[in-house]
Amino acid sequence: MEHVSHEMIKPVYDQNSKILILGSMPSRKSREAAFYYMHPQNRFWRILETLLKESSTDKIAFLKKHHIALWDTIATCDIIGASDASIKNVIPNKIEEIVAQIPNIQIFTAGKTAHKLYYKYNYPITKKEAICLPSTSPANCRISMEEMLEKWSIILNYL
User: Fold this and answer.
1) CB–CB of 80/14 below 8 Å?
2) pTM of the model
């Protein structure tokens, strides 16, 4: 069990953000790279690039151009490797700070763990419903890329 804090990875958002995508906790590869979804087999960036028909070479500029905010539900926790099932001793991020600045933002969660954690720790404060999308993690290989794109395409309705 490793105690993980990813406070060095700041949320990405600005006043023009229309959607907020919340993960649970960055993988070890993402923590090493100090940015979100940086594991080479994670499909997050390929999904967004396909849906938005543009490369995400400069990831922060890409997100801001498309009005996408990005953060995680967890600020610190104990975790074994990248296993969401092992997450314990959660200290949540203060999602309400973004919601207070952008009250009309639509929240999406990337995976069931992020969804469960959002509703346990953040929803009682924000009172904002979240739409659960399938996890883009390499561990979620049972969903094909085609099905993933179909399910994630709902974000286009909010951009």
Assistant:
1) no
2) 0.94
Helices (H) and strands (E) in the chain, counts: 7, 7
Burial class (CB in 10 A: 0-12, 13-18, 19+), 147: exposed
Structurally, what CATH architecture does the domain formed by 2-158 represent?
3-Layer(aba) Sandwich (3.40)
Helix locations, the chain, DSSP H: 28-33, 44-52, 59-65, 95-101, 112-117, 123-126, 145-152
Cα separation, 113 vs 78, whole angstroms: 14
Rg, Å, the chain Cα set: 14
Return per-residue pLDDT of the chain as tens, 159 residues: 777 776 678 999 999 999 999 999 888 888 889 899 999 999 999 999 999 999 999 999 999 999 999 999 999 998 877 677 888 999 999 999 999 999 999 999 999 999 999 999 999 999 999 999 999 998 888 999 999 999 999 999 999
The H or E element spanning position 69 is strand 68-72
Q: What is the rounded CA–CA span in Å between residue 103 and residue 158?
A: 14
